[in-house]
Amino acid sequence: MVAIGVTRQGQWVYLRDGEAFLEAGHPEVAPEMGPSCFLLPDPDKKGVWVNGGGTMFLVEIDAVFPVLHGPYGEDGTLQGLLELSGIPYVGAPVLASAVCMDKYTTKRILASHGVPHVPAIPVERYAWRTKREEVLANLLERVSYPLFAKPSGSGSSLGVTKVKSPDALAGALDEAFLYDTRALVEPAMEGCLEVECSVLGNEEPVASIAGQILPRREFYDYEAKYLEDTTELAIPARLDPEMMEMVRELAVQAFLVTGCKGMARVDFFVDLKARKAYVNELNTIPGFTRVSMYPKMWEASGLSFPELVKRLVDLALERQTQSWREVYRRT
Ligand SMILES: Nc1ncnc2c1ncn2[C@@H]1O[C@H](COP(=O)(O)OP(=O)(O)O)[C@@H](O)[C@H]1O
Ligand SMILES: [Mg+2]
What we know:
The chain is α+β, with helices and mostly antiparallel strands. Helices cover 34% and strands 23% of the residues. Bound molecules: adenosine-5'-diphosphate and magnesium ion.
């Protein structure tokens, strides 16, 4: 196994010993850690080119397992580069990656297929900058509290704020616009459970048992996700069998209508009283450490971590045979 590290500036570093790097617990990647490397749009040479001090050499690669979050990793850009290079990769293809990165686009697709989701009002940064007072006045007329303001793209809860009164709305939007050019204003899903479900497969995806997040904080913010250890996870989620089935079916539907392949974690708010589940978002590269929800929900469903990784690589190889280039070659 070969690991390619990405520095904060976005340079790729060839880390000869991928296992050792992962065992070291994800240290920050620095250029001195290895030679630089890159992909070329040459599908006949399936691999990564490494700069070996004046001479380039090719390290062949069977499949790539992207383990990056957010823009330039999860949003279809990396996936596009891999398509051009003809290298199979785990997870969502270009379009589904881009769609799921943008929560507003995701909602519009879910809406057009009748999949229940959290409604949102979009706000564009350009409008916010050029006619802030008008945009704000319009929003203040339409919303009620508490609400959530968040970037449409991004992730890890960055730029997400719970807004409890009108005077806090503008500041929350300023914060959201630090992370994307589009922000969303959503009703807070009060009294709901936060439930997640892992989906796996290509054309006939299956859903795991759903799990539940029980943050000790006001909501599942950046601190709760990465800095604190107080968030309780419940697998299976505390749902009756009927609601559990509803969540699993909706997870598969959301996966299919957004064009996901391989894997995605579909996140929900579940209203037990109203017996409704609403999709919040899809994560096409969910957290993938041994303690992350995606693999843990599979483990609870009878699929071990090594089996899951193998299945994902097999799905990536299987999907390669459906790629535009392969299909075109055969016609
Ligand atoms: N409409 C909402 N109602 C209630 N809680 C929300 C809402 N939107 C976001 N949250 C809380 O904020 C967290 C992060 O928001 P989310 O939309 O999942 O963005 P991210 O992509 O950053 O994970 C959620 O896990 C949840 O705890
Ligand atoms: Mg989330």
